[in-house]
Amino acid sequence: MVDPQPVVTQGLTKIYKDFWGRQKVHALVGLDLSLERGEIFGLLGPNGSGKSTTIKLLLGLIFPTSGRADVLGHPPGTPAVNQRIGYLPEESYLHRFLTGEETVDFYGRLFGLPRRERRRRTAELLDLVGLDRRARARQLREYSKGMSRRIGLAQALVNDPELLLLDEPTSGLDPIGTREMKDLILHLKSEGKTILLSSHLLADVQDVCDRIGILARGELREIGRVRDLLLVRDVFQLRATHVTPEAREAILAAVRSAGAGILAAEHPTTTLEDLFLRVIRADAEARPSSGRTGPPASSPPAVGDGHG
Amino acid sequence: MAMDKPATAAEPSAVRHRSRWTPGRVWALALVTFRQGVRMRLWVLVPLAILVLIFADLSSARFDPVFEAVPAAISTSLLVMAILAVIVGVFFSTYSMPAEVETKVIYSVVTKPVSSAEIVMGKALGMSLLVLAVLAPVGCGAYAYILVRAATMQSVAVRRLDEARPHAAYPADLNALEAVVRTGPLQTYRYYAADSGPTIEIFRGAEAPEKPGFVWILGETGMRLAWNLGATPLREWASAGPVRLRLALDAKPPPEAPDTPTQVQVSFEPPLGLPLREEGGPMPVYRAMLDVPASGELEVPVAAPGARPVQGVLNVPDEGDIVLEVMAMQAGRLVGAGPGAIRVVGPGGQEFAVKDGPERSAAAERRRVTLVGRSRPPRQVAVFRFNHVRESVLGAGDVPLEAAFSLDAFSPALAQTTAELVLVRPDTGERKTIPFTPESRHSTILYIDRSFWHGGPLEVRLQCLTDEDFIGLLPESVRLRLGGGPFALNFAKGILRVWFFGTVVAAVGVLMSMRLAWFVSILAVMVFLLVGIARDFLLGWAFHLLPHVPALPFVVSVLLLGLFGGLVGRLLGIRTVFIAGGIVLWCGASGFWYYSARARLHLAPLAQSLLEHVVLPVPEVTAFLPGESINVGRVMPLAEVLGSFGWALALAAVAVFLGAMALKRREVAA
User: Fold this and answer.
1) Range of the domain at B446
2) Which residue in B has a C-alpha nearest to residue A164's C-alpha?
3) Which residues in chain B (83-142) have CB-CB distances under 8 A to chain A?
4) Can you tell me the ipTM of this complex?
5) Are residues B242 and B291 in the same domain?
6) Is position A238 within any domain?
7) B415 φ, ψ to 5°?
8) At B300, is the secondary structure helix, strand, or coil?
9) Structural domain that includes position A175
10) Can you tell me the mean pLDDT for B151-180?
């Protein structure tokens, strides 16, 4: 039998009502969506566009007003589904009175992992998200936002899920943590996991997603592969190295002679993220004991915010 | 592989969580709940509670330092522990879930493979463990405090005994002091109920000599002489014409009013279930007040069942037995009758003599007996008989035996009620008289010298000697009290029961908090507790006022049912209109059932049972508390503890089930 698609929605609609039962907010209207196995799908949209509502519906945290949803071939929210998914909320909504280790152990228990397996998995995941021994023994109430995101991610991965639902995964992370999170998402994809993430940080989505959907006022306005959607078909860009001034003039002349218009001819700039990472890494290499050095060369990468 | 139906708008909740559970997940959730309480530093309540109980106990200086201080300390300890269980149970159980919803921690839990039942069960179990974790150290502290208190009391008892010996007015006090000095004030006791009793006998005095086959009753005590005239031709003769009953009564006025006539009520008591009147017809006359003439022969005119009612002429009940009853209406009047006291005189002058003597009416021998006080004969005497107390049961040694009295004395004149206790050994005829002063709803312990009795049959005869005072008695009002078992074990059983109580409160709190906000949940649990505690009071009040306000029990039922039906319905997300409709239908059906049952008198107990258990399904929460039972040191049988455990488990299970239903239907992220 063919495995069902990880997520399928048909006409999924959520209307919030007030105390008297009157319709108040159309949070999501007629969403038709299907995710392929092993892809990273990004839900984009401004605040209040229905991204979180979609994820909550897929988790069974709220019920649809109309329409239907299938997650891994089952209705959302059933234990059979929850056994195979991982969820990273927008904020890390975890018991603040537990320590990092206790938190992962607790969620491992909920998945019915035996004690030995829980211990192994807890150590492995805390290493993966980059929480050191001291941090593990501290209660979550003492964690920085970045550390909270990391422990949140650890609990989301405790069952080695097939499908990951990540709500604003890079929210609250510094550039290093953001890069590490993105690398980790790509690493998880390489392990065959399907990932649905929502974000309003467009650059992050562009970096990792295979496909995206853009929501506005609860309606899906655009959906497709990132490259297809972003392709500017009437502009051609050539990037080359070691171009002498003479060669440059010759190229420009050739373009003009071919009848094409030149929009820009200049040295490209790097991204601020790349610059930042280069500076921080150089500093770390100069003073190896002073802090983190960014993501390790070997995967899986650790995730952090620079406070840990 | 069969695929589940997808979640659609029509039935999201029905498929959200399957009702399965595994102990491992429940335990994980319980441990987290427990840790939450521990890390919220709820343990600070432990030293606080111990300080409160010590302060409360030391500040109540009105107790007798030897006989009352230790029971009072035990009582205070258990009360403080019960309050602590309620505080932890109510405030923390109602806090946990709303806090998790508020901080959205619940998102991380319900998105794991956990059913609603597991979440609610885990929370209730965690709360229960937390209540136990708080109660156990407080219990240990209380136990240590009680030990210290008991040691002090024993030295006080020694001193007091030395001082009292030369001029003790009341020997029982000396015995009691000796008992405390020898065995210590920290005792648990086993109680032995009388084999029979209380039966009422009448101490007639010299004015009413013994007559063979005679039965005596006393005025204003509710006692009645009763004859069954079903086998006589009374009904047949009455249908043919006027009939007279001739009653030969022996009436003895009291010495203080020798010349006043004796008034009696003569009545036919229709059997239960018989309609009091024909549909729309006049009310027949079944009772008449008559004076007993000097000759002692009373003539009572009797008419047929359907005859026109005439005051002073009794109508014979038209079916069933014909029970004639005579009741003396003035205090201190002694009325008696013997065999052959009744003759039926027919319309044609024919006579039928009833050979049998009267019997005491069952009304006077019912389970609850009221002794009416009277300083001069004739007097009522309540007799309790102990026939099967073997010497081996009483134990060895020369410690005095104890008799415990749980009496309910009432004095209309607000005077001190005086009573007299006579211990009689039927085998030897020996008697011992002990005067004492019972207090209302108060337990009294009297001591019996082993030299007087150490096993074998014993009669305890009780009289109220204060004019116009009353003493209420039940079969268990007089018991023998004998030492048994270590106090520590009994105290631990008491703490266990407090824990069960706390568990029920916590489970109800968890239930309420599944859909209600914190503050509203607290109010809901408090209402639950108050109604549970006030249930008996409300019912008693309602039944007391029933003759004047016939619908009151029904109104109380509707109010309570409405309160809980509405609350539970709201928790389960049922529409208000359906809840209201359901309550109206239920109350209508119950009301109809109740009143139709009352109309048919023979169903009245069933109706009352229905009202108490079905219409008013509020559990009596006080039943979980050890209450008085442990305060006076009674050994708490294991069965009683297990019974409480069973009840607590059942109630907690119902709360968990409802809570799981409520959570299943809840959008936790809405």
Assistant:
1) 193-200+378-483
2) B111
3) 103-115
4) 0.80
5) yes
6) no
7) -95, 170
8) strand
9) 7-84+161-230
10) 75
